[in-house]
Protein backbone atom coordinates (compact mmCIF):
# COMPACT_ATOMS: atom_id res chain seq x y z
CA UNK A 1 0.00 0.00 0.00
CA UNK A 2 1.43 3.30 -1.10
CA UNK A 3 -0.04 5.01 1.98
CA UNK A 4 2.26 3.02 4.30
CA UNK A 5 5.01 5.32 3.07
CA UNK A 6 4.53 8.41 5.29
CA UNK A 7 6.16 10.64 2.70
CA UNK A 8 3.67 9.46 0.07
CA UNK A 9 0.73 10.11 2.39
CA UNK A 10 2.10 13.58 3.16
CA UNK A 11 2.51 14.33 -0.53
CA UNK A 12 -1.04 13.21 -1.36
CA UNK A 13 -2.41 15.37 1.48
CA UNK A 14 -0.45 18.30 0.07
CA UNK A 15 -1.74 17.69 -3.41
CA UNK A 16 -5.41 17.32 -2.45
CA UNK A 17 -5.18 20.37 -0.17
CA UNK A 18 -3.61 22.44 -2.95
CA UNK A 19 -6.40 21.43 -5.35
CA UNK A 20 -9.09 22.14 -2.71
CA UNK A 21 -7.72 25.58 -1.89
CA UNK A 22 -7.30 26.25 -5.60
CA UNK A 23 -11.00 25.53 -6.12
CA UNK A 24 -12.12 27.64 -3.15
CA UNK A 25 -9.98 30.43 -4.48
CA UNK A 26 -11.24 29.98 -8.05
CA UNK A 27 -14.78 30.21 -6.70
CA UNK A 28 -13.99 33.53 -5.04
CA UNK A 29 -12.30 35.02 -8.09
CA UNK A 30 -14.98 33.86 -10.53
CA UNK A 31 -17.68 35.26 -8.24
CA UNK A 32 -15.74 38.53 -8.24
CA UNK A 33 -15.33 38.46 -12.04
CA UNK A 34 -19.07 37.87 -12.42
CA UNK A 35 -19.51 41.53 -11.42
CA UNK A 36 -17.80 42.55 -14.66
CA UNK A 37 -20.32 40.63 -16.78
CA UNK A 38 -22.01 42.83 -19.39
CA UNK A 39 -25.34 40.95 -19.18
CA UNK A 40 -27.24 38.87 -16.65
CA UNK A 41 -26.81 35.84 -18.91
CA UNK A 42 -23.02 36.27 -18.92
CA UNK A 43 -23.07 36.74 -15.16
CA UNK A 44 -24.98 33.50 -14.71
CA UNK A 45 -22.52 31.66 -16.97
CA UNK A 46 -19.55 32.76 -14.86
CA UNK A 47 -21.40 32.08 -11.61
CA UNK A 48 -22.09 28.55 -12.90
CA UNK A 49 -18.36 28.04 -13.39
CA UNK A 50 -17.76 29.31 -9.86
CA UNK A 51 -20.33 26.93 -8.38
CA UNK A 52 -18.98 23.99 -10.38
CA UNK A 53 -15.47 24.60 -8.99
CA UNK A 54 -16.78 24.86 -5.49
CA UNK A 55 -18.83 21.69 -5.84
CA UNK A 56 -15.66 19.57 -5.72
CA UNK A 57 -14.40 20.93 -2.43
CA UNK A 58 -16.61 18.80 -0.16
CA UNK A 59 -15.26 15.47 -1.49
CA UNK A 60 -11.65 16.67 -1.25
CA UNK A 61 -12.24 17.74 2.37
CA UNK A 62 -13.71 14.32 3.21
CA UNK A 63 -10.73 12.54 1.70
CA UNK A 64 -8.26 14.77 3.55
CA UNK A 65 -10.05 13.91 6.80
CA UNK A 66 -9.94 10.17 5.93
CA UNK A 67 -6.18 10.50 5.48
CA UNK A 68 -5.99 11.89 9.02
CA UNK A 69 -5.41 15.52 8.07
CA UNK A 70 -7.27 18.62 9.22
CA UNK A 71 -8.43 19.88 5.82
CA UNK A 72 -8.02 23.56 6.61
CA UNK A 73 -4.61 23.15 8.21
CA UNK A 74 -3.55 21.13 5.19
CA UNK A 75 -4.65 23.95 2.88
CA UNK A 76 -2.78 26.64 4.82
CA UNK A 77 0.62 26.30 3.04
CA UNK A 78 -1.05 26.84 -0.34
CA UNK A 79 -2.95 29.99 0.49
CA UNK A 80 -0.02 32.36 -0.03
CA UNK A 81 1.12 31.07 -3.46
CA UNK A 82 -2.43 30.70 -4.81
CA UNK A 83 -3.57 34.08 -3.42
CA UNK A 84 -0.39 35.65 -4.88
CA UNK A 85 -1.17 34.16 -8.28
CA UNK A 86 -4.61 35.78 -8.17
CA UNK A 87 -3.30 39.11 -6.87
CA UNK A 88 -0.82 39.28 -9.72
CA UNK A 89 -3.41 38.33 -12.31
CA UNK A 90 -6.44 40.43 -11.34
CA UNK A 91 -8.40 40.85 -14.60
CA UNK A 92 -8.71 44.44 -15.78
CA UNK A 93 -11.93 43.72 -17.64
CA UNK A 94 -14.52 41.10 -18.50
CA UNK A 95 -12.44 39.50 -21.28
CA UNK A 96 -9.31 39.14 -19.18
CA UNK A 97 -11.53 37.47 -16.60
CA UNK A 98 -12.99 35.05 -19.15
CA UNK A 99 -9.55 34.08 -20.43
CA UNK A 100 -8.22 33.61 -16.95
CA UNK A 101 -11.17 31.36 -16.09
CA UNK A 102 -10.61 29.25 -19.19
CA UNK A 103 -6.84 29.24 -19.66
CA UNK A 104 -5.84 29.41 -15.98
CA UNK A 105 -8.21 26.65 -15.02
CA UNK A 106 -7.10 24.55 -17.97
CA UNK A 107 -3.42 24.89 -17.05
CA UNK A 108 -4.02 23.93 -13.42
CA UNK A 109 -6.13 20.94 -14.47
CA UNK A 110 -3.50 19.70 -16.91
CA UNK A 111 -0.84 19.96 -14.25
CA UNK A 112 -2.83 18.06 -11.61
CA UNK A 113 -3.88 15.42 -14.11
CA UNK A 114 -0.25 14.83 -15.10
CA UNK A 115 0.71 14.32 -11.47
CA UNK A 116 -2.35 12.12 -10.83
CA UNK A 117 -1.04 9.61 -13.37
CA UNK A 118 1.73 8.71 -10.88
CA UNK A 119 -0.57 8.08 -7.92
CA UNK A 120 -2.66 5.23 -6.50
CA UNK A 121 -5.97 4.58 -8.30
CA UNK A 122 -8.25 6.04 -5.57
CA UNK A 123 -6.37 9.32 -5.41
CA UNK A 124 -6.16 9.49 -9.19
CA UNK A 125 -9.92 8.99 -9.59
CA UNK A 126 -10.68 11.61 -6.97
CA UNK A 127 -8.40 14.15 -8.63
CA UNK A 128 -9.76 13.51 -12.11
CA UNK A 129 -13.35 13.85 -10.81
CA UNK A 130 -12.42 17.09 -9.05
CA UNK A 131 -11.12 18.56 -12.27
CA UNK A 132 -14.13 17.67 -14.38
CA UNK A 133 -14.72 20.29 -16.97
CA UNK A 134 -17.48 22.64 -15.90
CA UNK A 135 -18.74 22.53 -19.50
CA UNK A 136 -18.52 26.25 -20.07
CA UNK A 137 -15.59 26.26 -22.47
CA UNK A 138 -17.84 26.82 -25.45
CA UNK A 139 -19.28 29.91 -23.79
CA UNK A 140 -15.84 31.46 -23.20
CA UNK A 141 -14.56 30.64 -26.69
CA UNK A 142 -17.69 32.11 -28.25
CA UNK A 143 -17.54 35.37 -26.26
CA UNK A 144 -13.80 35.94 -26.77
CA UNK A 145 -13.87 35.18 -30.50
CA UNK A 146 -16.81 37.52 -31.05
CA UNK A 147 -15.08 40.32 -29.14
CA UNK A 148 -11.84 39.96 -31.13
CA UNK A 149 -13.80 39.95 -34.39
CA UNK A 150 -15.41 43.23 -33.34
CA UNK A 151 -12.12 44.79 -32.18
CA UNK A 152 -8.98 43.12 -33.59
CA UNK A 153 -6.64 45.13 -31.34
CA UNK A 154 -8.15 43.28 -28.37
CA UNK A 155 -6.46 40.10 -29.67
CA UNK A 156 -2.97 41.52 -29.11
CA UNK A 157 -3.71 42.59 -25.56
CA UNK A 158 -5.36 39.29 -24.68
CA UNK A 159 -2.47 37.27 -26.15
CA UNK A 160 -0.09 39.12 -23.82
CA UNK A 161 -2.46 38.44 -20.97
CA UNK A 162 -2.39 34.68 -21.71
CA UNK A 163 1.42 34.72 -21.56
CA UNK A 164 1.32 36.56 -18.26
CA UNK A 165 -1.05 33.96 -16.80
CA UNK A 166 1.35 31.17 -17.81
CA UNK A 167 4.36 33.03 -16.38
CA UNK A 168 2.68 33.72 -13.04
CA UNK A 169 1.47 30.14 -12.75
CA UNK A 170 5.02 28.82 -13.29
CA UNK A 171 6.44 31.30 -10.75
CA UNK A 172 4.02 30.19 -8.05
CA UNK A 173 4.38 26.50 -8.93
CA UNK A 174 8.15 26.82 -8.44
CA UNK A 175 7.56 28.49 -5.10
CA UNK A 176 5.42 25.52 -4.00
CA UNK A 177 7.98 23.03 -5.31
CA UNK A 178 10.74 24.73 -3.31
CA UNK A 179 8.69 24.69 -0.09
CA UNK A 180 7.02 21.28 -0.14
CA UNK A 181 9.62 18.54 -0.17
CA UNK A 182 7.23 15.58 0.00
CA UNK A 183 5.21 16.90 -2.93
CA UNK A 184 8.31 17.39 -5.03
CA UNK A 185 9.68 13.97 -4.05
CA UNK A 186 6.39 12.45 -5.21
CA UNK A 187 7.31 13.06 -8.81
CA UNK A 188 10.64 11.28 -8.28
CA UNK A 189 8.80 8.03 -7.40
CA UNK A 190 9.31 5.73 -4.42
CA UNK A 191 9.13 2.11 -3.29
CA UNK A 192 6.68 0.34 -5.64
CA UNK A 193 5.99 3.50 -7.58
CA UNK A 194 7.64 4.63 -10.77
CA UNK A 195 8.81 8.23 -10.84
CA UNK A 196 9.86 10.82 -13.33
CA UNK A 197 13.42 11.43 -14.35
CA UNK A 198 14.42 14.87 -15.55
CA UNK A 199 13.73 14.03 -19.18
CA UNK A 200 10.21 12.81 -18.31
CA UNK A 201 9.63 15.96 -16.25
CA UNK A 202 10.69 18.02 -19.22
CA UNK A 203 8.25 16.17 -21.46
CA UNK A 204 5.49 16.73 -18.93
CA UNK A 205 6.05 20.50 -18.98
CA UNK A 206 6.20 20.42 -22.75
CA UNK A 207 2.78 18.76 -22.84
CA UNK A 208 1.31 21.34 -20.46
CA UNK A 209 2.72 24.20 -22.50
CA UNK A 210 1.44 22.66 -25.70
CA UNK A 211 -2.10 22.34 -24.34
CA UNK A 212 -1.94 25.96 -23.20
CA UNK A 213 -1.04 26.96 -26.76
CA UNK A 214 -3.97 24.89 -28.08
CA UNK A 215 -6.39 26.64 -25.77
CA UNK A 216 -5.07 30.06 -26.77
CA UNK A 217 -5.49 29.06 -30.43
CA UNK A 218 -9.11 28.00 -29.81
CA UNK A 219 -9.69 31.49 -28.46
CA UNK A 220 -8.13 32.91 -31.62
CA UNK A 221 -5.03 34.13 -29.74
CA UNK A 222 -1.31 33.70 -30.32
CA UNK A 223 0.52 32.11 -27.40
CA UNK B 1 -55.45 23.33 -16.74
CA UNK B 2 -54.48 26.41 -14.78
CA UNK B 3 -52.00 27.39 -17.54
CA UNK B 4 -54.83 27.98 -20.03
CA UNK B 5 -55.51 31.16 -18.07
CA UNK B 6 -52.93 33.58 -19.57
CA UNK B 7 -52.90 35.67 -16.41
CA UNK B 8 -52.05 32.59 -14.35
CA UNK B 9 -49.23 31.66 -16.72
CA UNK B 10 -47.91 35.23 -16.57
CA UNK B 11 -48.02 35.20 -12.78
CA UNK B 12 -46.17 31.88 -12.53
CA UNK B 13 -43.51 33.17 -14.92
CA UNK B 14 -43.15 36.25 -12.72
CA UNK B 15 -42.88 34.17 -9.59
CA UNK B 16 -40.29 31.72 -10.95
CA UNK B 17 -38.28 34.59 -12.44
CA UNK B 18 -38.33 36.48 -9.13
CA UNK B 19 -37.11 33.38 -7.28
CA UNK B 20 -34.41 32.73 -9.90
CA UNK B 21 -33.09 36.29 -9.81
CA UNK B 22 -33.31 36.21 -6.00
CA UNK B 23 -31.04 33.16 -5.99
CA UNK B 24 -28.56 34.61 -8.49
CA UNK B 25 -28.45 37.73 -6.38
CA UNK B 26 -28.12 35.76 -3.12
CA UNK B 27 -25.19 33.92 -4.70
CA UNK B 28 -23.46 37.20 -5.49
CA UNK B 29 -24.02 38.68 -2.05
CA UNK B 30 -22.98 35.55 -0.18
CA UNK B 31 -19.84 35.29 -2.31
CA UNK B 32 -19.14 38.92 -1.39
CA UNK B 33 -19.82 38.28 2.32
CA UNK B 34 -17.45 35.32 2.22
CA UNK B 35 -14.64 37.88 2.03
CA UNK B 36 -15.51 39.02 5.56
CA UNK B 37 -15.07 35.50 6.96
CA UNK B 38 -12.59 35.38 9.86
CA UNK B 39 -11.29 31.90 8.94
CA UNK B 40 -11.01 29.73 5.85
CA UNK B 41 -13.51 27.31 7.40
CA UNK B 42 -16.09 30.10 7.82
CA UNK B 43 -15.42 31.25 4.28
CA UNK B 44 -16.07 27.77 2.93
CA UNK B 45 -19.33 27.54 4.93
CA UNK B 46 -20.65 30.77 3.38
CA UNK B 47 -19.42 29.81 -0.08
CA UNK B 48 -21.32 26.51 0.30
CA UNK B 49 -24.51 28.47 1.00
CA UNK B 50 -23.83 30.59 -2.09
CA UNK B 51 -23.32 27.53 -4.29
CA UNK B 52 -26.45 25.84 -2.91
CA UNK B 53 -28.56 28.90 -3.81
CA UNK B 54 -27.10 29.02 -7.26
CA UNK B 55 -27.65 25.30 -7.81
CA UNK B 56 -31.41 25.90 -8.14
CA UNK B 57 -31.18 28.45 -10.92
CA UNK B 58 -30.73 25.97 -13.79
CA UNK B 59 -34.04 24.15 -13.13
CA UNK B 60 -35.93 27.44 -12.80
CA UNK B 61 -34.48 28.63 -16.12
CA UNK B 62 -35.53 25.40 -17.82
CA UNK B 63 -39.07 25.72 -16.50
CA UNK B 64 -39.31 29.38 -17.59
CA UNK B 65 -38.26 28.32 -21.08
CA UNK B 66 -40.86 25.50 -21.06
CA UNK B 67 -43.50 28.11 -20.23
CA UNK B 68 -42.43 30.02 -23.34
CA UNK B 69 -40.57 32.82 -21.55
CA UNK B 70 -37.05 34.10 -22.12
CA UNK B 71 -35.63 33.45 -18.64
CA UNK B 72 -33.45 36.56 -18.53
CA UNK B 73 -36.15 38.87 -19.87
CA UNK B 74 -38.53 37.42 -17.31
CA UNK B 75 -36.06 38.21 -14.53
CA UNK B 76 -35.52 41.81 -15.64
CA UNK B 77 -38.45 43.40 -13.69
CA UNK B 78 -37.15 41.92 -10.43
CA UNK B 79 -33.58 43.15 -10.70
CA UNK B 80 -34.27 46.66 -9.39
CA UNK B 81 -36.27 45.70 -6.27
CA UNK B 82 -33.96 42.80 -5.34
CA UNK B 83 -30.79 44.80 -6.01
CA UNK B 84 -32.25 47.67 -3.97
CA UNK B 85 -32.94 45.31 -1.08
CA UNK B 86 -29.29 44.26 -1.12
CA UNK B 87 -27.99 47.81 -1.50
CA UNK B 88 -29.98 48.90 1.52
CA UNK B 89 -28.87 45.93 3.59
CA UNK B 90 -25.15 45.69 2.85
CA UNK B 91 -23.69 43.96 5.94
CA UNK B 92 -21.20 46.08 7.89
CA UNK B 93 -19.41 43.03 9.24
CA UNK B 94 -19.27 39.24 9.25
CA UNK B 95 -22.11 38.82 11.77
CA UNK B 96 -24.51 41.08 9.93
CA UNK B 97 -23.73 39.03 6.84
CA UNK B 98 -24.43 35.75 8.64
CA UNK B 99 -27.77 37.00 9.97
CA UNK B 100 -28.76 38.34 6.60
CA UNK B 101 -27.96 34.97 4.99
CA UNK B 102 -30.02 33.11 7.57
CA UNK B 103 -32.90 35.47 8.35
CA UNK B 104 -33.24 37.08 4.91
CA UNK B 105 -33.17 33.75 3.15
CA UNK B 106 -35.64 32.31 5.64
CA UNK B 107 -38.10 35.17 5.13
CA UNK B 108 -37.96 34.91 1.35
CA UNK B 109 -38.41 31.13 1.50
CA UNK B 110 -41.43 31.39 3.82
CA UNK B 111 -43.03 33.93 1.52
CA UNK B 112 -42.54 31.86 -1.65
CA UNK B 113 -43.69 28.69 0.10
CA UNK B 114 -46.89 30.42 1.24
CA UNK B 115 -47.64 31.50 -2.33
CA UNK B 116 -46.72 28.06 -3.70
CA UNK B 117 -49.57 26.53 -1.70
CA UNK B 118 -52.03 28.26 -4.08
CA UNK B 119 -50.44 26.98 -7.30
CA UNK B 120 -50.63 23.89 -9.49
CA UNK B 121 -48.73 20.85 -8.19
CA UNK B 122 -45.81 21.02 -10.70
CA UNK B 123 -45.08 24.65 -9.96
CA UNK B 124 -45.45 24.05 -6.23
CA UNK B 125 -42.98 21.14 -6.28
CA UNK B 126 -40.46 23.13 -8.30
CA UNK B 127 -40.66 26.08 -5.91
CA UNK B 128 -40.37 23.92 -2.80
CA UNK B 129 -37.33 22.11 -4.29
CA UNK B 130 -35.75 25.47 -5.19
CA UNK B 131 -36.04 26.64 -1.62
CA UNK B 132 -34.56 23.56 -0.03
CA UNK B 133 -32.61 24.46 3.04
CA UNK B 134 -28.91 24.59 2.28
CA UNK B 135 -28.33 22.87 5.65
CA UNK B 136 -26.13 25.57 7.06
CA UNK B 137 -28.54 26.94 9.65
CA UNK B 138 -26.72 25.21 12.49
CA UNK B 139 -23.48 26.86 11.45
CA UNK B 140 -25.00 30.36 11.53
CA UNK B 141 -26.80 29.82 14.85
CA UNK B 142 -23.62 28.48 16.41
CA UNK B 143 -21.43 31.37 15.23
CA UNK B 144 -23.89 34.12 16.17
CA UNK B 145 -24.66 32.68 19.63
CA UNK B 146 -20.97 32.32 20.44
CA UNK B 147 -20.26 35.90 19.36
CA UNK B 148 -23.10 37.31 21.51
CA UNK B 149 -21.93 35.29 24.50
CA UNK B 150 -18.48 36.83 24.07
CA UNK B 151 -19.82 40.37 23.59
CA UNK B 152 -23.40 40.89 24.85
CA UNK B 153 -23.64 44.40 23.34
CA UNK B 154 -23.46 42.75 19.91
CA UNK B 155 -26.92 41.26 20.59
CA UNK B 156 -28.58 44.70 20.66
CA UNK B 157 -27.01 45.80 17.41
CA UNK B 158 -27.85 42.54 15.64
CA UNK B 159 -31.48 42.64 16.88
CA UNK B 160 -31.85 46.08 15.23
CA UNK B 161 -30.27 44.67 12.11
CA UNK B 162 -32.85 41.85 11.99
CA UNK B 163 -35.67 44.40 12.17
CA UNK B 164 -34.11 46.40 9.38
CA UNK B 165 -33.91 43.32 7.15
CA UNK B 166 -37.62 42.65 7.72
CA UNK B 167 -38.55 46.28 7.02
CA UNK B 168 -36.53 46.44 3.79
CA UNK B 169 -37.96 43.13 2.60
CA UNK B 170 -41.52 44.39 3.11
CA UNK B 171 -40.75 47.68 1.34
CA UNK B 172 -39.43 45.91 -1.74
CA UNK B 173 -42.20 43.29 -1.70
CA UNK B 174 -44.77 46.11 -1.78
CA UNK B 175 -42.94 47.66 -4.69
CA UNK B 176 -43.17 44.38 -6.61
CA UNK B 177 -46.86 43.97 -5.69
CA UNK B 178 -47.63 47.46 -7.01
CA UNK B 179 -45.82 46.80 -10.31
CA UNK B 180 -46.82 43.24 -11.17
CA UNK B 181 -50.57 42.95 -11.53
CA UNK B 182 -50.70 39.30 -12.57
CA UNK B 183 -48.56 38.25 -9.63
CA UNK B 184 -50.75 40.16 -7.20
CA UNK B 185 -53.94 38.82 -8.78
CA UNK B 186 -52.57 35.29 -8.30
CA UNK B 187 -53.16 35.53 -4.58
CA UNK B 188 -56.79 36.51 -5.21
CA UNK B 189 -57.43 33.17 -6.94
CA UNK B 190 -59.12 32.52 -10.31
CA UNK B 191 -61.20 30.01 -12.24
CA UNK B 192 -60.68 26.60 -10.60
CA UNK B 193 -58.25 28.00 -8.07
CA UNK B 194 -59.05 29.16 -4.56
CA UNK B 195 -57.62 32.52 -3.58
CA UNK B 196 -56.95 34.52 -0.48
CA UNK B 197 -59.35 37.05 0.98
CA UNK B 198 -57.95 39.92 3.00
CA UNK B 199 -58.29 38.05 6.28
CA UNK B 200 -56.37 35.07 4.86
CA UNK B 201 -53.69 37.41 3.50
CA UNK B 202 -53.41 38.94 6.98
CA UNK B 203 -52.95 35.49 8.50
CA UNK B 204 -50.30 34.66 5.91
CA UNK B 205 -48.25 37.73 6.86
CA UNK B 206 -48.76 36.93 10.53
CA UNK B 207 -47.27 33.47 9.94
CA UNK B 208 -44.28 34.91 8.07
CA UNK B 209 -43.65 37.47 10.82
CA UNK B 210 -43.95 34.77 13.46
CA UNK B 211 -41.40 32.53 11.77
CA UNK B 212 -39.05 35.51 11.48
CA UNK B 213 -39.37 36.01 15.26
CA UNK B 214 -38.64 32.30 15.81
CA UNK B 215 -35.47 32.50 13.74
CA UNK B 216 -34.32 35.60 15.61
CA UNK B 217 -34.97 33.77 18.90
CA UNK B 218 -32.89 30.78 17.74
CA UNK B 219 -30.05 33.21 17.18
CA UNK B 220 -30.56 34.55 20.71
CA UNK B 221 -31.91 37.88 19.42
CA UNK B 222 -35.05 39.88 20.21
CA UNK B 223 -37.20 40.60 17.18
UniProtKB/TrEMBL annotation, chains A, B:
Would you say which domain of life the source belongs to? Answer: Bacteria
CDD domains xrefs: Ferritin_like
InterPro entries xrefs:
Ferritin-like (IPR012347), Ferritin-like_SF (IPR009078), Ferritin_actino (IPR059125)
Xref: Pfam families: MiaE_2 (PF13794)
Q: Which Gene3D superfamilies match?
A: 1.20.1260.10
- Domain Ferritin-like as annotated: residue spans: 6-190
Q: What is this protein called?
A: Ferritin-like domain-containing protein
Which organism does this sequence originate in? Nocardioides endophyticus
Amino acid sequence: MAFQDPQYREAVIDLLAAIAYGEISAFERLAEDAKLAPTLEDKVAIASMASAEFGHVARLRERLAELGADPFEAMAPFRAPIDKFHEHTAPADWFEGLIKAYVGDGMANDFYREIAAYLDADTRDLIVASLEDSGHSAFVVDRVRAAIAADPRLGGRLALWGRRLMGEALTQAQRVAADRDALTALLAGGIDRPGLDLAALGRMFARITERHAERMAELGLDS
